[in-house]
Amino acid sequence: MTLPHFSQAMSPDRAHTGPEPGEMRVRTWHLGDDRQSLVLASRNNRLPEVVYWGPPVGGSSIDEIAAAARYDVTGGMQDEIAPLSLSPEASMTFQGQTGLTARNLDGEVIAPAFLFSHEEKQQNTLKLVYQDNGLGLSLTLDLELTPHTSLFKLRTRLDSREDISVDWLAAPVLPAPDHTDEMIEFSGRWCSEFLTRRLPFAPGARVRDNRTGRTDHAHFPGLIVCSKSASNTTGEAYAFHYGWSGGHKMVVEELADGRRHVQFGHASGTMEKGKSFETATLYATYSARGFNGAAVRFQRHVRDHLVAETRQTRPVHYNCWEAVYFDHDVDELKSIASLAADLGAERFVLDDGWFGHRDDDTTSLGDWVIDPRKFPDGLTPLIDHVKSLGLEFGIWFEPEMINKDSDLFRAHPDWLLGALDQTPGRQQFALDMSRNDVRDYLYDHIAAILETNDIGYIKWDHNRVLPVADAGQAEGVYALIDRLRRVFTAVEIESCASGGARIDFGILERTQRVWLSDSNDALERQRIQHDAALFLPASVTGSHVGPRKCHTSGRIFDIRFRAWTAAQRHMGFEMDPRELTGEEVDVLKEVTRWWKDNRDWMMQADILRLDSADPAVTAEQHLAEDGERFVAFAAQMRTSDQILPRPLRLTGLDASATYRVSLANRNDAPRLSRGEPLLKSRDIDVSGQYLMSHGVVLPWRFPDTIWVLEGHKL
Ligand code: GLA
């Protein structure tokens, strides 16, 4: 609830003119719920700063909190401490990264001094409008606390009377409270998305400027600020995500005076000159329950509020990419579809290669017309076959891209984004998505395919970084997807970009699934999906059983490890099913059946990352929202240093309840597991307290294997 507090009655005109000399005006605001509080205070009508962010402040007086938060001043300092406001200003002698960096068209730096204009409050939202009348600028700060998921949604908007150019506009700036001393940031690469790195704070700024024009493998726009001792299950954490697909910049700065703050906005150089500028939404939340406290809020928000109109039961996917690549033959695809259906697939996705003359990746992007050489009677015979097996049909597009060897490029070379002689990426170039004619062309061609074929799903790809980083590109693709979704309301969309290079809450507002990574290597996938769970629920996270010998790592893993790894998320298959042995078919069918039996609750469950006592084990627990059941997956990522498996401690259970715990795959114990831990032969009934304090004793096993532990409250 938003509780405004005014330490002095203000008349609107006084609010504009500021205080009389020597007079101090303080305004305060509180935005909070039963999980967190954010307290803002402003002095003398200037921009407000966060004076408290943490557990709910309950009965405390907000004004008293604001007053108590004031720092001392000593030698070598300005006489007044520059506020660390929601948009720190140079005009207040703030000496760190300012919230706005702008120039007029003569190139002169603009240093606004914003004064309060007005505010709008509703139950969970607060809009604060500030102006600098002399410069003709207005700054709007939008704050919202989401009612069920307790995420702050923060946006900044700048309006100018004259055209100006903006180098940097931060979403409302939040402090990293003083008791936090570390940050976890994200990097990565193709086939290794969501790499985390834990760094100590140090004086100066840590800047991540993603100028690729897309979210990118290497720059997931997230951050967790925490104390050294914080873990998945314990300690305090402040988590952030910038929901934007066009490239972001993050600045985490420790000022010379010791204060720390976090800024997110669009990447450098992506905002053009103009009169209005707006950031994307910065999501932020405080957790008193380790990283999981924040992760669960992000997961639930994506699942229940952000992703629109997902058909409830998530179908098992089959994707033909790693089976046939560009080599599309109708009869072969039909027989693959039949085998996939027999394994349990419910959606067949025809990947790259069906259009233009797309026999390899040098040609035809942009020519979204069915290739008559490969599909002489169109897609209908294949679709009819797929549907007769009871599967839905999905299809691959990469709308924003163009090859120079294409009819589209020959007709419209000027539609290319950037210089004609630029270096290509995967032999391809990007279209200028800010152009209406480009978007109309793409809309017409995609719509024609969707109108004339029974298609329920699009895999929407984006396989290169952009030559020019420009917000108009992401806005253009959002507009195109939104237009298609308004007409083809039943079509679900998967966001793919060479795997997981476009995963963010901006694209997830318009899509129902992400292709997390091009790596179907189960071991790599364990790591990637575990770290992605800091933000993503299982229901949107695609995970496929790949070929026996992984195409991106060359490794061979047992089908059990591959199948259970895919079963931890939205499951699918991507190998050529003709390569499977009889035993592999049996295992895959069994795990798929298990997934189908459990998906209804599992796709609605919270993924809780476990603090494994053994660094060789990556483990997570999917806890049903009603707390009645769970499944924990414990992957042995390498051989352990010690010989005895360390008990796996669970989390989030009802301490006083009794749970019946069983191993779903107890027959997978290898012959070298010679002892008799109880779970090898039967279920155990123990309290939640025991499971969380002592943990579960699991049988010994080989590396690259997984235990699947099911629990029910009795
Ligand atoms: C990208 C995707 C793959 C596949 C290919 C097709 O690499 O990530 O899944 O769709 O493109 O060209």
Structure description:
The structure is a single chain. The strands form six sheets. Strands 5, 6, 7, 8, 9, 10, 12, 13, 15, 16, 19 and 20 form a twelve-stranded antiparallel β-sheet that branches. Strand 5 and strand 6 (109-110) form a beta hairpin. The protein folds into three domains: 20-71 and 80-306, Beta-galactosidase, Chain A, domain 5; 317-600, Aldolase class I (TIM Barrel), CATH 3.20.20.70; 610-713, Sandwich (Immunoglobulin-like). It is globular. Mean pLDDT is 95; it is low at 1-19. The protein is an alpha+beta fold and 714 residues long. The relative contact order is 0.08. Helix 5 (330-343) packs parallel to helix 6 and helix 11 packs parallel to helix 12 (559-566). The chain binds alpha-D-galactopyranose. Residues 321, 351-352, 396, 461, 463, 496, 498-499, 515, 518 line the site of alpha-D-galactopyranose (GLA).
What is the element layout, followed by pairings?
Elements: E1 2-6, H1 12-17, E2 26-32, E3 37-43, E4 49-54, H2 62-68, E5 100-104, E6 109-110, E7 115-121, E8 125-132, E9 137-145, E10 152-169, E11 174-175, E12 182-189, E13 192-200, E14 204-209, E15 222-226, E16 237-243, E17 248-254, E18 260-266, E19 273-278, E20 281-287, H3 290-306, E21 317-319, H4 321-324, H5 330-343, E22 347-350, H6 380-388, E23 392-397, E24 401-402, H7 407-411, E25 429-430, H8 436-452, E26 457-460, H9 471-487, E27 492-495, H10 505-508, E28 513-515, H11 522-532, E29 541-545, H12 559-566, E30 570-573, H13 582-602, E31 606-609, E32 617-623, E33 629-636, E34 658-663, H14 678-681, E35 684-687, H15 688-693, E36 705-713
Parallel strand pairs: 21-22, 21-30, 22-23, 23-26, 26-27, 27-28, 28-29, 29-30
Antiparallel strand pairs: 1-2, 2-3, 3-4, 5-6, 5-10, 7-8, 8-9, 9-10, 10-19, 10-20, 11-18, 12-13, 12-15, 14-17, 15-16, 16-20, 17-18, 24-25, 31-32, 32-33, 33-36, 34-35, 34-36
The site of alpha-D-galactopyranose has 11 residues, from loops.
